[in-house]
Design goal:
Strands 1, 2, 3, 4, 5, 6, 7 and 8 form an eight-stranded antiparallel β-sheet that branches. An eight-stranded mixed β-sheet has the order 9-10-12-11-13-14-15-16, with helices on both faces. It is globular and about 60 Å long. It folds into two domains: about 45-130, Elongation Factor Tu (Ef-tu), domain 3 (Beta Barrel); about 135-280 and about 320-390, 3-Layer(aba) Sandwich (Rossmann fold), CATH 3.40.50. Helix 1 crosses helix 7 (about 295-310), helix 4 (about 220-235) crosses helix 5 (about 250-260) and helix 6 (about 280-290) crosses helix 7 (about 295-310). The protein contains ten helices and 16 strands. By secondary structure, the chain is of the alpha/beta class.
């Protein structure tokens, strides 16, 4: 190549490389660093009108017509909550009713306030898919103990509902905005089984201890915190468990299954709600949705940087590979409009799993971990039937 042409190629390629490197570094940071707990608002409340004590109508901005972020979809149909900033500190939340009226720029929904004063005009807020934000007793009247168990890097926080049984259901939340409250929507369905329930968390989340690095590893290391929870259960006479995992909690359950202790407890089944089955595909999905150039190259760069920084081995975290070898019942719940985890990942997992071990519920009109919000009755029917059968094994 002539020197002039080579120089031109370098001059053209260098800025592209610098931009890609900067984008990859930004993506790697987002991949690994937990977001501090807080509101993370998406819009501001336009108006509030009280109708009775703790109940009224809230006017919210209508979401964009296309590609609205999950927590800005104020017109979402189904059971959703609202979270808002409380003056002087704290976060309020309540339950939204169906849309009553709508114009070009706003809409009105009933709001039952659960915590905090009602949100006034200009209050930062966001949609809440978790729906319940307190604890098993406050939200569902289920007594529990707030416990700490020793994990590999420090204490793991959990809620313990002791029914004195030799069986338990372990519930594991998702990453980033996830904490134990994510399990509260499904908790009544689980608790009615009559067995003990452990709602556990893991490093860098909730009230659990941080890891030395303070970084996510997408179930690679977090699965060891679930194994610590199993040891804690064994000490309390639990001999059989089923696991319910949400988002990355599902990945944690599948990775823990591969490391399952020979001394038990026996694994009876796993329910996976929008599981994070392959970080690479999830990152690529986000890159493509964001409109960044060269999505495959940018994804690979971001994952390479993240691997160096956090010591993550990405290939074993493609959990589609475990589907053919499933030897316990699995309930797979997928959200077709999921903006975080592409539904194609779940389709591929379902296609590869033995037909006699897996039940797949593919929910139209639902975003990430929103199957319950969109169809609470259908969610309850399927999870209830799955747990009843699994716990009878």
């Amino acid at each position: 190549m002539p020197k002039a042409a080579l120089l031109i190629a370098v001059v053209v390629a260098l800025p592209v490389a610098i931009v890609l490197a900067a984008l990859a570094a930004r993506a790697a940071k987002r991949l690994l660093v937990p977001v501090p707990y807080g509101l993370q608002s998406e819009f501001t409340v336009l108006a509030w009108g009280a109708e009775s004590e703790g109940r009224g109508v809230v006017r919210l901005p209508a979401p964009p017509l296309a590609r609205a972020p999950q927590f800005s979809r104020t017109d979402a149909r189904g059971r959703y909550g609202l979270m808002w900033e409380v003056p002087g500190g704290g976060i309020g939340h309540g339950h939204l009713g169906a849309v009553r009226s709508r114009d070009a720029g706003s809409l009105e929904r009933p709001l039952d306030v659960v915590v905090g004063p009602p949100p006034g005009p200009g209050t930062p807020a966001r949609l809440d898919v978790t729906l319940y934000r307190r604890d098993p007793l406050a939200d569902h009247g289920v007594p529990f103990d707030d416990v700490r168990m020793r994990g590999p890097v420090g204490d793991v926080a959990a809620w313990w509902i002791d029914r004195g049984s030799d069986a338990a259901v372990v519930m594991v939340h998702g990453r980033r905005r996830g904490d134990r409250t994510e399990a509260l929507r499904a908790l009544p369905i689980v608790a009615e089984q009559g067995v003990s329930v452990l709602v556990t968390s893991y490093r860098n989340h909730d009230a659990s201890a941080p890891s030395p690095s303070g970084l996510f590893t997408y179930a690679q290391d977090e699965a060891d915190d679930l194994l610590a929870a199993l040891a804690w259960l064994r000490e309390r006479g639990v001999r059989r468990v089923a696991v319910v995992g949400f988002s990355m909690g599902g990945a944690i359950a599948l990775v823990a299954r591969e490391r399952w202790p020979a001394e038990g407890p026996k694994l009876l089944g796993i329910a996976l709600d929008s599981p994070l089955l392959d970080p690479r595909e999830v990152v690529r999905f986000a890159v493509v949705r964001s409109g960044f150039p060269l999505p495959d190259l940018l994804t690979d760069l971001a994952l390479a940087l993240a691997a160096v920084r956090a010591g993550v081995r990405w290939r074993p975290l493609d959990l589609r590979r475990v589907a053919p070898g499933l030897d316990v019942p699995v309930l797979l719940i997928g959200a077709v409009e999921d903006q975080t985890i592409p539904i194609g990942l779940l389709d591929a997992f379902a296609a590869a799993a033995p037909a006699d071990t897996l039940s797949y519920w593919r929910v139209e009109g639902a975003g990430h971990v929103e199957a319950y919000n969109v169809d609470p009755e259908g969610y309850g029917t399927r999870l209830r039937a799955f747990l009843t059968a699994a716990l009878a094994r």
